From TrEMBL:
One of its GO terms (cellular component) is cytoplasm. One of its GO terms (molecular function) is aldehyde dehydrogenase (NAD+) activity. InterPro entries: Epimerase_deHydtase, NAD(P)-bd_dom_sf, NAD(P)-dependent_oxidoreduct. Residues 11-234 form the NAD-dependent epimerase/dehydratase domain. Pfam families: Epimerase (PF01370). Gene3D superfamilies: NAD(P)-binding Rossmann-like Domain. This is HpnA protein.
Amino acid sequence: MGITEDNVVRVLVTGATGLLGNNVVRMLLEHGQQVRVMVRDSRANRSLAKLDIEIVQGDVKDEESVKTAMLGADAVIHSAAMVHIGWTKEKLMQPTNVEGTRIVGEAALKQKIRMVHVSSVDALGIGQEDAPANEETPREGKIPCPYVLTKRAAEEELQKLIANGLHAVIVNPGLMFGPWDWKPSSGRMLISVVKKQPPLAPRGGGTTCDVRDVALGCINAIGHGRVGENYILGGENISYFDLWTRIANMTGRRPPWRRMGPFISMMVGMFGDTWATMEGKEGEVNSAALRIAGQFHYYSSDKAKAELGYNNRPLDQTLEDAWHWFRKHGYLPL
């Protein structure tokens, strides 16, 4: 089932208020598709305002609401997930990331519709600065925080259903930037560089991509992805120091002085963990996040380019578009 303007289908999107899900919804509409979204709160959400979509109330953790939302759909793009890089919140992530994926997959199997599951490069093996990983790289080397473990467990649950006949494809996006980042998610990095102008950048790096390109990759996976296969949707592999410097130069801010050394990284992470214990709430600065940021999450998207027609626009364009979007919507000063 290829998606074209002459082949109108109804696609159910979970996680439609998030960065990727919101871009998927908008791109489906641009391609003339009928779109249904499942949200926990059926009241109007500004991320979905004025969009010609069908909104149904439900939660991916609830089997009955998922079944209802999927009635009459031709495909489902499952992008709902809980994201937190740290040592805590596993009890919150497990029901959404793992059980929610299983529930969506079971419903898609019973109703015989196609499914695209949005995972993450964090579920894959680790890349290296001089050797990007791919879908076949052994799943070793990642810091075993709950987000990594639950995203991997979700894929394992899905593979069991695929073995029983589910038509599902798994996509693994990298670090996404772009418009419609309402919450915001990965855009917090850009906002932090602009507002705080941190003097030190993490030691590692990542595969950075435009959320609009990833959204199109997800849509293309419905008709062109091979059942049971993973597809990395990455982009430019760049160190965080170089990325932060590029953001700072683009926005007229002060770039970081240098990379964070191992000792400083360890001390900052320990401070974050101690603060979390005192406050009873883990923030974005913690030892898991710092250890992950010290790795090079470099990946190759060659498979997605060959099979899904996946392409990347220049990173500078992506960052500039994201910056302008955040300014237009009041996240950053004009």
